[in-house]
Amino acid sequence: MDEVRIGTIGSGEIVHHVLDGVMKTEGVKLEAVYSRTQEKAEALAKTYGADKAYTDMNALLADESVNTVYIATPNLLHYSQAKAALLAGKNVICEKPIVTRYAHAQELREIAEKRGLFLVEAAPTMFLPNFRVLRERLADIGRVRLVMSNYSQYSSRYDAVLRGERPNIFNPEFAGGALMDINYYNVLLNVALFGAPESAKYYPNIYPGLADTSGVFMMKYADFVSTNSGAKDTWGINHFTIEGEKGYIYADESNALKSIRVVTRSGDETIDLQGDADRWYYEIQELTRLMLNDNYDAVSEMLAVSLGTVRIIESSRKEAGIIFPGDD
pTM here? Predict the structure, then answer.
């Protein structure tokens, strides 16, 4: 591929973060945007220099100048939109969660592989320089015995819930909830570092008539236990901590890995290769590099982590009574 030419589906806040990264990265450009309203489509296109603004998604997918589609829509739309884009011959970058059902994830992977297309989940974690530091320094702390993470950030849309409203982010009809949004980062990071657990169980706080507003996701590995808390109805410290027999590693913010602190009997070291750049910048930088170099193997490895995450989250949320439209 000589250039990544993106067409966006969705126009929310994260799209702007991603496109800010696109503007700073060579080898990638925004070609076209799609939104349900002409006003939003034209505004986004103007801000980021796109030539085309569509209100018909099929027209976007038929645009031969677009070779990659970036999807940032409500969770439950990801599967149908990603499938349509792949069948139209486009590479797909889809916001996390890539889909809500493992069977759908497998189907999308098969389509991408058969057509020689990239399929990527846009969860910045594995693209971050500090993720590589975290993975490389695991050996310093010996055999892992405990993993603990917490990502709690009070949502203004929880205020809407308290007023009796049903915002999409908490609505099971749109595959909402704290696990699918904020705690997803914690679970993904576990799978990226340690693989799939032997077992998993979710203990949610479910708001009546809606999905989970907070909860704890337990993961049991052969040698250790991982507890992962995520909340949109409280404030808390965002961190990811790994404790081993020879020391511990503390990551500031499980979704951004702003710095990595490695503490052992022989020393205390803090590493940060990211500086002030936001996580979407690194995501776009690395994704562009991989795609321009046709590095399907690296992208496939990341996709395998995404599929493993979807699989354990799907089974655990269903067991916890969080059911989405189309669930078996």
Answer: 0.95
Q: Which residues contact 328 (CB under 8 A, 6 or more apart)?
A: none
Residues 53-78: b if buried by 16+ CB within 10 A, e if exposed: bbbebeebbebeebbbbbbbbbbbbb
> What's the DSSP call for residue 160?
H
Containing 29, the helix (H) or strand (E) segment is strand 28-34
Q: DSSP letters of 193-258?
A: HH-S-SEEEEEEEEPTTS-EEEEEEEEE-SS-EEEEEEESSS----EEEEEETTEEEEEE-TTT--
| pLDDT tens digits, one per residue of 49-93 | 998 999 999 999 999 999 999 999 999 999 999 999 999 999 999
**Is 324 in a helix, a strand, or coil?**
coil
Alpha carbon distance 110, 139 (integer Å): 35
- pLDDT above 80 for 276: no
How far is Cα 255 from Cα 192, in angstroms, rounded to an integer?
Answer: 13
Domain segments of the chain: what residues? 4-124+281-300, 126-278+309-319
CATH class of 4-124+281-300: alpha beta
| Position 328 pLDDT exceeds 80 | no
Phi and psi (nearest 5°) for 104? -65, -40
Fill in the DSSP letter of residue 25: -
Radius of gyration of the chain (CA): 20
The architecture (CATH level 2) of 126-278+309-319 comes to: 2-Layer Sandwich (3.30)
Q: What is the DSSP letter of 284?
A: H
